[in-house]
């Protein structure tokens, strides 16, 4: 994986509150996963490249529309939902057919301010382990 420190400072996304479980790391860069055809990316910490989360735009896999209280995102300069990019953290086990994504706590990015925030949505119908791939019906 490419080291984030070597990359252009303008591409660094600051997470003022950090990410869930990684609050001490504030600066990340997005790197495309090779051979994923733009479906998977790494959100890699600039301070510790061993901290990297696999993420994806969830709408590439499922009908996903999030309703986020804009007031929660003011800290990253978002005043309208249209200013956001939404990513889901992916859990990729050895058997890729069992991969899941977290729809309950999306990563929200404002590319205008280069800031982001992970939010936990108040919606019990959203799963933290939503299957990435649909099971084939027999």
UniProtKB/TrEMBL annotation:
Transmembrane region(s): none
**Key words, A-Z:** Bacterial flagellum biogenesis, Cell projection, Chaperone, Cilium, Cytoplasm, Flagellum, Translation regulation
| GO cellular component terms attached to this protein's record | cytoplasm
Summary of subunit composition and partner proteins: Interacts with translational regulator CsrA and flagellin(s).
Q: Which family does the similarity line name?
A: Belongs to the FliW family.
Q: What does this protein do?
A: Acts as an anti-CsrA protein, binds CsrA and prevents it from repressing translation of its target genes, one of which is flagellin. Binds to flagellin and participates in the assembly of the flagellum.
Protein name, UniProt field: Flagellar assembly factor FliW
Q: Which organism is it from?
A: Proteinivorax hydrogeniformans
């Amino acid at each position: 994986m490419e080291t984030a420190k070597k990359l252009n400072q303008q591409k660094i996304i600051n997470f003022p509150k950090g990410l869930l479980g990684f609050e001490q790391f504030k600066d990340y860069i997005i790197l495309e996963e090779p051979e994923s055809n733009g479906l998977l990316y790494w959100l890699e910490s600039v301070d510790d490249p061993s901290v990297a989360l696999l993420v994806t735009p969830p709408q590439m896999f499922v009908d996903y529309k999030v309703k986020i209280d804009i007031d929660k995102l003011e800290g990253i300069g978002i005043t309208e939902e249209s200013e956001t990019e939404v990513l889901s953290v992916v859990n990729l086990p050895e058997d890729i057919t069992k991969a899941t994504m977290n729809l309950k706590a999306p990563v929200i990015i404002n590319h205008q301010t280069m800031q982001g925030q992970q939010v936990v949505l108040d919606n019990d119908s959203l799963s933290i382990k939503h299957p990435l791939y649909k099971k084939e019906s027999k």
